[in-house]
């Protein structure tokens, strides 16, 4: 069981990204009419139902038939959330086995793997990937207490696809400040010789190079640094996950192989 700390809008950044990037997937799964609606699982939602309800509300804006199920291992937390159920929104007790009626199209799992070791985290990734729909996705990550800094990975049935860094422009000193929010599969890999360490070091240098733009605001500095970084790293530059439209929101996405750990079965 996790500590369960949560709060309003803590996961707004990841919700916004999910709705934009995977809204088309949810809508396509809603057709043809008469079939089961697309199912999303919010795994380990914590002591309050609030972030699950926010996810449901935000996804309903992009797919009016989506169903969201909040899953928690603590029966007291599930009981506390039950009064907030409504059509399309439910809560159930469970864990990585995902106790839902059919394979979900999307699983959001935030701040649930911090207590595990790196190898255990890889195992739980594999467990979740095996339980999603064939074209489904797992979005797993961590964020700060108020959600101003977050990092998440998107995984398909085949394995990790992308990693996204997101921050409030006033919520960090330099981009490497986001290192403390790396997924458990990477957080101990932020050492010399590992790709994620080299990436964060280069991002800090790009951020420093773009310091003169700070007078126009941190947003313009972030956009410029992202463009500079994209010269040497495969930063996603095209919609829906990349380019100035996403950078201006304080996001930056890379393909997972760019930062995958070296010298293991999971990396290069």
TrEMBL record:
SUPFAM superfamilies: S-adenosyl-L-methionine-dependent methyltransferases. Keywords: Methyltransferase, Transferase. It comes from the Bacteria. GO terms for biological process: methylation. One of its GO terms (molecular function) is methyltransferase activity. InterPro entries: SAM-dependent_MTases_sf. This is Class I SAM-dependent methyltransferase. It comes from Microbispora oryzae.
